[in-house]
Amino acid sequence: MRTLLLAGILTFCAAAQTPTEPPLLIQMISAPGSDGAAIRPYSNGVAVNVLGMRSVTGVSETWLIEAHHSFASIEELDAEISAGRPARGASDRMSSQDDLLAPSRTLVALYRPNRSYRPDEAIRMFPKARYFHISLYRIRPGADGDFGELVRQRRYGFERTNLDRPDIAYQVISGAPSETYVFLAPLTSLKTLDDMLARMPASLETGARPGSKIAADIEISREHLLFRVDPQISWVSQGFVSADPEFWEGKRR
Length: 253
Prior knowledge:
Blueprint: E1 5-6, E2 25-32, E3 50-55, E4 61-68, H1 71-84, E5 105-111, H2 119-125, E6 131-139, H3 144-160, E7 168-174, E8 180-187, H4 191-199, H5 202-206, H6 215-218, E9 219-229, H7 238-241, H8 245-250
């Protein structure tokens, strides 16, 4: 079973099985617009899962998220794709070169378990996710320790309210400033966000509390985005598909 998944870029190791642990590395590829041609030419020989997503909020973008267990895995995939990549034509030169749209971008990020919230639950939700709530943080140089404390407070607040919205944290190590963090929260339905709003004070999302260093002193920017998972632009294993074959196979092109 092959399905392309656009969403930043997530590849999962053990391609023959449903993922049970977050991948050590993710490669995230974003492209302006929602043109399926932005999908990388994955071939039958690529033993990775790739989640494809299209933006619901923010500028129109397509994201691919590849899950990798090592840089060697990234290298193998890059060699496979480079060998089979067709020549670029006029249609590939970004017909969407609108000033509002960012250029295509590729990032590599490292799994940070201590920044994550119930990551083992989050990764098991991936096959049944219909949306992703993705949070992007860029913090000031030297503020990693303070940011870690904010995230710890945030996680404690989530646990205290038993919030059912797990996420996986990654720190960008190539392609953007190293002070950039990505939080991936799979959602089986947008109703999850209704429950979150009803149960969680706004301060818990930032981790801020009276007497602590406020987020504004630590963060340069923060952005929350919603993406819709698209099976037609995804590439996933049969084990991944077996969690919900009607969704993954029923909506293929």
